[in-house]
Automatic annotation (TrEMBL):
It comes from the Bacteria. The lineage of its organism: Bacteria, Pseudomonadati, Pseudomonadota, Alphaproteobacteria, Rhodobacterales. The keyword Membrane applies. One of its GO terms (molecular function) is ATP hydrolysis activity. This is Spermidine/putrescine import ATP-binding protein PotA. PANTHER family: SPERMIDINE/PUTRESCINE IMPORT ATP-BINDING PROTEIN POTA (PTHR42781), THIAMINE IMPORT ATP-BINDING PROTEIN THIQ (PTHR42781:SF1). The keyword Translocase applies. The gene is potA. Part of the ABC transporter complex PotABCD involved in spermidine/putrescine import. Responsible for energy coupling to the transport system. GO terms for cellular component: ATP-binding cassette (ABC) transporter complex. It catalyses: ATP + H2O + polyamine-[polyamine-binding protein]Side 1 = ADP + phosphate + polyamineSide 2 + [polyamine-binding protein]Side 1. Its EC number is 7.6.2.11. It comes from Paenirhodobacter ferrireducens. Residues 5-236 form the ABC transporter domain. Belongs to the ABC transporter superfamily. Spermidine/putrescine importer (TC 3.A.1.11.1) family.
């Protein structure tokens, strides 16, 4: 695959103290669906707007389809942007809204009609061509905004929190629809969101941002299974963090002493014996042991809280030193629900060594 977007050491300093984006280098492949993910204020929109030409960088360069566009205005770039509020013209019909950009470009009426028809068909709204935006639902307006953006056949579509105005149910549905749309049109999508589930569901690759920088990037599963830092482990999914100390480390295996016991972990890089670390594990990777069952990493504690969330149960288990470990289990049947341990009951937990993350230093989540 060829690179379509190449960002080299891009920075945006709004003022000496307000740093929007801090020295980011990123390559996006042609046809990819890349998502910029991070909490509010981490620089996602600033980075997206610089790709679109709505903001100029204070340092670095931007290449689009092998052409340096760092100083080009938006209309000279083969990109199109979908804004959060859709920005549809209320006095125009759906068809006129979608065709507007083509009309400005000077295309003929027949050609515009054909392209508008195709774009509306792609988003499943051809029968709404004569309606006005206010006659449509939020989800339909969102699709019209998408149709209007793809009708001009940009090389890259930039989407800033495109689903944030929709309610939860509709948002889930649109996540899948947009993913399918991306597959159909073959245009490169770069999306911004602060919603980790949305990023995991929709993207080929997720770029996690932290204070204007890239914290980690990778395929959704890579990020989830191998977070490079506590920040990423905490932002994507839920993680139990347990302060600890390295007892020994041989090859890829490390023994960690934590307040409530000991853990073996599989690590990528050697750790220094005696050093301070933080062990992490996902609640769904922590399992309740049956009586008499043995396992490699056993933690003993008492049930401190039971949280029922429909699909399953989350137990907060307090270890001997007072730290808490969450364990998630799905509830396959009623029997399982009746077997929920009561508050205060002692129990044993286990987590496989390859499911234990080890981060150097202390973590203050
Ligand atoms: P995000 O989209 O991740 O929420 P933004 O890119 O909007 O983050 O903002 C990154 C940082 O830059 C924030 O500290 C924000 O306050 C600041 N910022 C964004 N836009 C401007 C602007 N036009 N002028 C000054 N500061 C800005
Ligand atoms: Mg933003």
């Amino acid at each position: 695959m060829a690179a379509i977007i190449e960002l080299e050491n891009i920075s945006k300093h709004y003022s000496p103290t307000i740093i929007g984006v801090d020295n980011v280098s990123l390559t996006v492949e042609d046809g990819e669906f890349v998502t910029l993910l991070g909490p509010s204020g981490c620089g996602k929109s600033t980075l997206l707007r610089m790709i679109g030409g709505f903001e100029t960088p204070t340092a670095g360069s931007i290449r689009l389809a092998d052409k340096d566009v760092t100083w080009d205005p938006p209309y000279k770039r083969e990109v199109n942007m979908v804004f959060q509020d859709y920005a549809l013209f209320p006095h125009m019909t759906v068809g006129e809204n979608v065709g507007y950009g083509l009309k400005v470009k000077g295309l003929g009426r027949l050609e515009i009609e054909t392209k508008v028809h195709d774009a509306l068909k792609l988003v499943g709204l051809f029968d709404k061509v004569k309606l006005r935006p206010q006659q449509l639902s939020g989800g339909q307006r969102q699709r019209i905004a998408l149709a209007r953006a793809i009708v001009r056949e940009p090389k890259v579509l930039l989407l800033d929190e495109p689903l944030s105005a929709l309610d939860a149910k509709l948002r889930e549905q649109m996540q899948i629809e947009m993913k399918h749309l991306h597959e159909k049109v073959g245009i490169t999508f770069v999306m911004v969101t602060h919603d980790q589930t949305e990023a995991l569901v929709m993207s080929d690759r997720v770029v996690v941002m932290e204070k204007g920088r890239i914290a980690q990037q990778g395929r959704p599963q890579e990020l989830y299974d191998h977070p490079a830092s506590p920040y990423v482990a905490n932002f994507i999914g839920t993680t139990n963090f347990l302060p600890g100390r390295v007892i020994r480390c041989a090859g890829e295996r490390a023994e960690i002493e934590i307040g409530g016991g000991r853990l073996s972990a599989i690590v990528d890089a050697p750790l220094v014996a005696g050093s301070t670390v933080t062990a992490g594990c996902r609640p769904e990777k922590v399992r309740l042991l049956a009586e008499g069952e043995t396992a490699e990493n056993v933690l003993e504690g008492r049930v401190a809280e039971v949280i029922y969330y429909g699909l399953g149960l989350r137990l907060a288990v307090e270890l001997a030193d007072g730290s808490r470990v969450y364990t998630d289990s799905l509830l396959p049947d009623r029997l399982a629900l009746s077997a929920v341990p009561p508050l205060g009951q002692s129990l044993r937990l286990a987590v496989e060594p390859h499911n234990v993350f080890v981060f150097e230093g202390e973590v203050t989540p």
